[in-house]
Amino acid sequence: MQQLDSHQYLGVRDDIAARIAAGEFKPGERLPSERQLQAGGGVARGTVREALFQLEAEGVIYRKDRSGWYVSPPPVVYDPTRWEGFMSYVEAQGRRPETETLSKVEIVCDGMLAQIFSRPVGAPMYWIRRRRLIDGRAVLIESIIVDAARAPGLIEHDLNGSLTSVLKTVYGVGVARNKVDMRPCALTRDEAEALRVKSGLPGLSLVRTCYDAQGHVVEFDREYWRHDALTVSVDIRVR
Amino acid sequence: MQQLDSHQYLGVRDDIAARIAAGEFKPGERLPSERQLQAGGGVARGTVREALFQLEAEGVIYRKDRSGWYVSPPPVVYDPTRWEGFMSYVEAQGRRPETETLSKVEIVCDGMLAQIFSRPVGAPMYWIRRRRLIDGRAVLIESIIVDAARAPGLIEHDLNGSLTSVLKTVYGVGVARNKVDMRPCALTRDEAEALRVKSGLPGLSLVRTCYDAQGHVVEFDREYWRHDALTVSVDIRVR
Asked: In what residue span(s) does the HTH gntR-type domain sit (chains A, B) (predicted)?
């Protein structure tokens, strides 16, 4: 195998990134093959691959179903200090949000959920699994738990929109506090399959606990995002 | 190769996670070998490996220098809505923060930095590279740019602490606004080497732009964190 020059792949990376930035390859478009990218550049195939992996790590390009490399659409910006939900902030950024309910079932409260909701083990809970898309691309998979006592019959409703709206308008349950914990993670088999990405791809795990004005947990949500789909952004000023 | 049962690895994962939670294996301790973990459980070696990869993805365990699997120390909590720096919030959580300056040099402002700092191309800038550790484990690598005109001679100072403090106390330069953009990423060669992790491991890329009260950029910082070292946490309430 040819020795990779430690700086050469960064040059190839910069070259491809500049062609994307200049609009030669547009978001959603397929890149030329590795062989074509290599041609004329006088670099090894391995160097081109390393540059492509670097761009994938940065979220600039992504792989799709073995059919090659594509230019990533721009990430949406998520500000956890704001109250807007996915359907609102994605649309506000000129993108098309969609929600697909994968399953909605009644379960019984286990030990972990009993602690989170301060409810007895065995109490009925709803478990909702959804996939969310931006401009037709799956970006997150989520697993939501809601106390069935607070929202009886919730899973009979259409949940392909804002769950917070359904809880508010149908059940009068409002959210007064939002605790969001985010951690980078690797997407393992189950999430990766649901997002149609390779297992091991980096992702963001986001856990949201929503409380009502009395401090009771209304909703407990675990989300797994593909890494190139969002930027978490917080802007604070001295008051 | 033996067929992996789709649920069996999650059972093994839960079993190891429970043993860690119960304190049988403590933070920083080495796990038994894969062979030992397999023994008696009646599961395939591949199932044990898949369970370990799952726990690594979740940040519960990590690999060290080919010497096996170790229990991850608990992540530190970082709240981007607060003003505290790394040295303060890590210490406040009962952990030991350290900063190592890897390099500090004068460079000239390029096109990208000219835009960020609103300074002419060619203006002198300082470029500081640091590694930060928690309890002796490298958790982030960062690259900081400071306008040399604002802090002449900055790189003559000891920068193994809080840079914000040096800017404030020595140069009277204070920060009035902090913009933080976070994205999950894969750690590629250069960052991975500096953090002594395998290339491709998930990480968090954090870009911080600090402004003074007049709206001038004081500091531009790019950080790469290993994924199991931090939880980003935001807690907001209706006012």
From this structure: 6-74
What is the CATH code for A76-232?
3.40.1410.10
ipTM of the complex, rounded to two decimals: 0.87
The rounded distance, in Å, linking the Cα atoms of B32 and B25 is 9
B115 lies within 8 A of chain A by CB: no
Write down how long chain A is. Answer: 239
- The mean pLDDT of chain B is 91
Query: Which pLDDT tens digit goes with each residue over A155-174?
Result: 999 999 999 999 999 999 99
Residue B157's SS3 state is coil
Please determine, for residue B4, whether its predicted confidence score (pLDDT) is greater than 50: no
pLDDT of B6 strictly over 70: no
Nearest to B107, CA basis, from B140, B81, B129, B92:
B129
Nearest residue on chain A to B178, judged by CA atoms? A236
Q: Which of A6, A186, A234 sits opposite B80 (nearest CB)?
A: A234
Distance from C-alpha of A91 to C-alpha of B62, rounded to nearest angstrom: 39
Interatomic CA distance for residues B224 and B201, integer angstroms? 11
B181-226: pLDDT as tens digits: 999 998 988 888 899 888 888 999 999 999 999 999 999 999 999 9
For the residues B3-31, what does the mean pLDDT come to?
Answer: 84
Give the least confident one: A62-66, A200-204, B206-210, B217-221: A62-66
Rounded Cα distance, A179 and A218, in Å: 12
The mean per-residue pLDDT over the stretch A77-92 comes to 94
Phi–psi pair at A5, nearest 5 degrees: -75, 135
Chain B residue nearest residue A176, CA to CA? B238
Note whether A138 and A195 are within 8 A (CB): yes
B173 pLDDT exceeds 60? yes
- Measure CB to CB from residue B227 to each of A184, A188, A200 and give the nearest one: A184
Residue ranges of domains in chain B = 8-71, 76-232
User: B180 and A234: CB-CB below 8 Å?
Assistant: yes
Interchain CB contact of A181 with B (< 8 Å): yes
B8-71 folds as: Arc Repressor Mutant, subunit A (1.10.10)
Instruction: Look at residues A59, A28, A35, A21 and name the one whose alpha carbon lies nearest to residue B188.
Output: A59
Distance from C-alpha of B50 to C-alpha of A114, rounded to nearest angstrom = 29
The two three-digit tokens of residue B232, written as one number: 């980003």
Q: What CA–CA distance (Å, rounded) separates A103 from B59?
A: 27
Asked if B56 has any chain A CB less than 8 Å from its own CB, the reply is: yes
Mean pLDDT of B20-30: 92
Size of interface A-B (CB pairs under 8 A): 135
List the Cα angle B203/B209/B215 in 5-degree steps: 170
